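Pilot study result, target chain (674 residues):
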Amino acid sequence: MSRAGYFGNVVRRIAGAVLFSLGAGGGNAAEEIAPFRLTGVEGSATTRFLRDEIVTAQPGGAPSRQMQSDLRQEVFFMTHSYAYHPGFVSLDIGGGPILQRQSFTADSGDAQSQGALYNFTGRANFLRDKPYRGSVFYDHLNPTVSVSPGQVLTQQNTRYGFDFALLAPVTPVPLYIDATRSHFQGRGADRVIDDQVDRVGLRATRSFGALGSTQFQYQNTHQESMSGSPNIPIQSSAAASQGFSLDSRFQFGGARQYDLVNLLNYNTQSYALEQGAIPDRRDLRVLFDLRGRLSESLQTFGNYSYSASSQGEIVSALNAASAGLSYTIAKDLTTTLGVRGEDNQTNQFSAQLYGVDGSARYQHALAGGTAQASYGVRYDLHDQHAVASQTPVLGERITLTGTTYSALAHQHVTAGSVTLSNLTRTQTFIEGHDYTLTVVGLETRVQRLIGGNILDGQDVLVDYSYDVGGTYAYTQTDQTMNLGWNLRSYLNLYYRLYDSASQLTSGAPTFQLNTIRSNLFGARTDLPLAKSFELMVGGGWELEDRRETISPYRRIAEDAYVQTEEPLFSSGTLRFSTRRLRVDYENSIQNINLTGYDFRYWSRHWFGLDVSADAGYEVDTGTPVERSRVTASLKAQWRYRKASLTFDLGHTRETQAALDRSRTLVQILARREF
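Predicted structure:
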């Protein structure tokens, strides 16, 4: 017998044994047995047109223009089948050709290209009804993806891997294993994508019946990247991370009145950069949290956490514990009491905190509504010993949306220490071209510049240092009082008083302690109106006067809206809103004077046509650099049986000082399923 015939007999015997076990349960399993059977075919034909145009106007020069157009025609078929038996091997295989024509126009010249691509996807599922099951898959797809509001590009994504599960009754601990390799490639006017990601994961779950369960997870990821903006140099980077977690959740007691959560996490991360070096990072976190419901009126809690982190010279360890109770004295009166302590040790300083807090909340029916009153107090003892004047921060993640600012997590940031990079660290951004920094009081804020290389809505990593504050000790007392009155769901009036007082007990901090007294008044209404059609009108108003040592300010916020609750004249629903925010700082020129308007229309017409329109405008004249943003979109979708047509028009215009940038995106998609 030939080797091929021998292995063929082995496969048939194994399949026969498995098929016997599949058919042992009865039913029509035996009638479904076949060497190969096609169970279904589906598909679609799609034509997509995309046009993306960017116009940038800078002072003292002619506007620059970039325009990209893309016409794609693709056919896709998906088949569903099985070999020998649906429970033995089931197959989902599909694919089809893509014809693509692209053109790119810029001030430097024009370029055109055309070619043929393809989509392919395949997945084989083995023994799907058995406690030992798995699958293998391979995908080669060319989707059009959004990388920021108003920007899309065509990617080529290749992904393959496997997953396997071992379940009860074979094992008392169900196991899930998966491994994938993914490669993402694409290029647009503002973005180049070239990432390869390898991932291996393991998950195990152990159930203890009514007591609870424990879940273990392990993940190992390796990523190589050459992604970034095509307008600045891109360096290659490789990042490796691995981590595991153990999550246990239990409920016990005679009346199951106790909840216990135990968490254990450990993660490592390392970078290999073409230029420069980033120290390896290790993080460990342990948490124990116990909560009890001793009666209808008495609940208690206690928790302990330990976290440790090391990355080069940045080494820290934090021990924290707290305990407390909540007691309902009467139906409308609830009180709380808590204690806590922290010990924070780093290379640059050591700090301890001990505190106690309490609160009381009362509510009472009054004059057609409900009145609420609450009071909370917190007293803390802080003691810090510093061995260095500054401590570094590596890889703090923030999101830069539009031209609004994002504040860094730590205060007292050292001037000149801030560096911004993208998430894979293939690029470092330039202050004054890609972003700007402003300091208001204790905060350092990052703002995206529209002419730079940071996309709208992009996540970035920030490295910086901040002032530790020296060696000193102080006490701090925080008090908060809230008063409110609700007239059903129509009107809400509220007032908040916040008072924070600090007193130095020893040492000499390098910065001034902050004392705060804030008064906030507010009102909110949502009022339904019913005439020939139903309307909802509403709005809110807030006034905050914050007196503090470092950066006192006065804030006024207003908003109003009107919207239809049912189709207007049998056409569609409308919503119009306006908002205004004014913040005046006494010690800074970085104020806020923002006015915004938003409009939305949505309708569903006959014959399956859906139409929606959105528009927004906001302008901020409070800062020395005035900024504005205009957005508009029109979307229409028509569907009739298996045919659909989608139209999408989007326009964005942003200005900062004399810089003006607009983007117009048009997408048309025609699809026929069969």
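One observation from the pilot: DSSP finds one helix and 35 strands in the chain. A full batch analysis is planned for the follow-on phase.
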